[in-house]
Design brief:
By secondary structure, this protein is α/β, with parallel strands linked by helices. Helix content is about 35%, strand content about 20%. The protein has 15 helices and 19 strands. The longest helix is centred in the middle third of the chain and has 17 residues. The N and C termini lie close together (about 5 Å). It binds zinc ion (2 copies).
């Protein structure tokens, strides 16, 4: 068996790994480096105009050259976050193989490839339910196991090969009271461990943080509590901003409104995730009066809302301060809309700690404060496992070998030190890899 660490081993982003057995390859994830993407997109349509080759050089896309010419039998996507699936339109075509994920993941990928003008890739997209196994080739079967994270239908990927099982676990949290979907399939995870796991690839995003990541149920209570507090004032507009893909959080915001205000949902990226969620009945949207994704629709909606601000809850994108997002445009008064001192903004997110986001977000906050807006920040719990969650996972799966992933060296080493506490040896049974590393087992 040969393992390829392709992306996500030097950084948080552009996740991509591959496993080769007897001349056949399965790819796990094809993501982009989201912060670099934002840097490029800050200049308008730059991303579309930039060649794939150049985007690889810039570090926006993973460098998959090592796989060119190989017999790839499938691309498996663990969940629909951009750092796991958004490179599909650029990189998947050359492999001409099935692209497999849970039904929600597949729906988002279909939209992504449509937006990027490569709709023919759609015919390769094949949904597989969590709890099911698909035979890919002589050497590979893929199994998706239900997992919790911060987007619907996240999966642990188990690749059963003629040379043993590889578990690919990017990303996850252990949420025992999820507000959308089922809790992790512990029974199956333990069975996998009992049957033998040769390699575990595991995210390390918060492996350095002690304890356990609180359930999304905790975030739901925080959202409800904060929204009630904002509504006590009875005047002015209330805006709530969260991750477009965080359907459970959007559900919490909508449910906490309890019909008290009219809801408007504004922003293109929001709709990319909300529309499939609505179609698949993961999110009830009857209470939403206005849904606008195009610039003109958003402008018209804001004009209407500004005439009776006290009646509205606006759910929108832009919590990272992205200059092109609706909230930033509102703050810059680009539409026929002005914030005032009765208005309130709830950030149901944390700032992704990379320089571009921190700079964008502080600029947004400055603009909002200058206009007298009251801000509620950090109404959020993470979607990533912390140290004691990772420990439980290692104990359940008992892998022969661990490859920490989804981080820079510091994060990978944090997971490696945890593995060491669990009896693994750095350099032998736990390996800190870098992009481009190849391991033979
Ligand atoms: Zn990720
Ligand atoms: Zn994720």
């Amino acid at each position: 068996m040969r393992f390829f660490a392709i992306g996500g081993y030097n950084e948080v982003g552009k996740n991509m790994s591959a496993v080769e057995v007897n001349g056949e390859v399965v790819i796990c994830d094809m993501g982009v480096q989201v912060d670099k993407l934002i840097e490029i997109e800050g200049g308008g349509d730059e991303y579309r105009k930039t060649s794939t080759h150049k985007l690889v050089q810039l570090g926006v896309l993973p460098d998959d050259k090592v796989l060119h010419g190989k017999k790839v039998v499938a691309i498996v996507i663990g969940h629909a976050h951009l750092d796991h699936c958004d490179a599909v339109p650029r990189l998947a075509e050359r492999y001409r193989c099935p692209i497999i994920g849970t039904p929600y993941t597949c729906e988002v990928i279909k939209r992504v490839v449509r937006d990027e003008d490569v709709p023919h890739i759609r015919k390769h997209v094949q949904p597989l339910n969590a709890g099911e196994v698909a035979v890919l080739s002589r050497n590979f079967e893929v199994e998706l196991v239900n997992m919790t994270h911060s987007i619907p239908q996240s999966a642990l990927v188990a690749l059963h090969t003629s040379e043993g099982t590889v578990v690919y676990l990017n990303d996850y949290k252990l949420d025992n009271t999820p507000t959308l979907g089922e809790k992790p399939d512990y029974k199956r995870i333990k069975e996998l461990g009992k049957n033998g796991v040769k390699i575990l690839v595991i995210e390390s995003v918060r492996a350095g943080e002690p304890g356990h990541t609180p359930s999304e149920m905790v975030a739901k209570v925080m959202v409800k509590d904060t929204l009630r507090k904002a509504y006590e004032q009875r005047r002015g507009l209330v805006v709530a901003s969260t991750f477009a893909s965080h359907i459970a959080r959007l559900k919490a915001i909508i449910e906490s409104n309890k019909g008290e205000r009219k809801i408007a949902m504004l922003g293109r990226s929001l709709m990319e995730y909300v529309e499939p969620a609505r179609e698949m009945r993961l999110l009830e949207t009857d209470e939403i009066v206005i849904m606008a994704k195009k610039r003109r629709g958003v402008a018209a909606a804001l004009e209407k809302i500004s005439r009776s601000k006290d009646d509205w809850l606006v759910i929108t994108t832009g919590h990272q301060g992205e200059p092109k997002a609706v909230l930033s445009r509102m703050a810059r008064q680009e539409h026929a809309f002005k914030f005032g001192k009765d208005d309130q903004v709830i950030f149901s997110s944390d700032v992704v700690p990379v320089p571009i986001n921190m700079a964008n977000r502080s600029e947004l906050q400055r603009l909002l404060k200058n206009q007298g807006v009251r801000i509620f920040d950090g109404v959020h719990v993470s979607g990533h496992a912390k140290r004691e969650d990772d420990r439980d996972m290692i104990r359940m799966l008992q892998p022969e070998m661990i490859f920490p992933s989804h981080g820079d060296k510091e994060k990978l080493l944090a997971l490696a030190s945890l593995a060491e506490e669990e009896g693994y040896k750095i350099g032998h049974t736990v390996r800190v890899l870098h992009n481009g590393a190849i391991v033979d087992r």
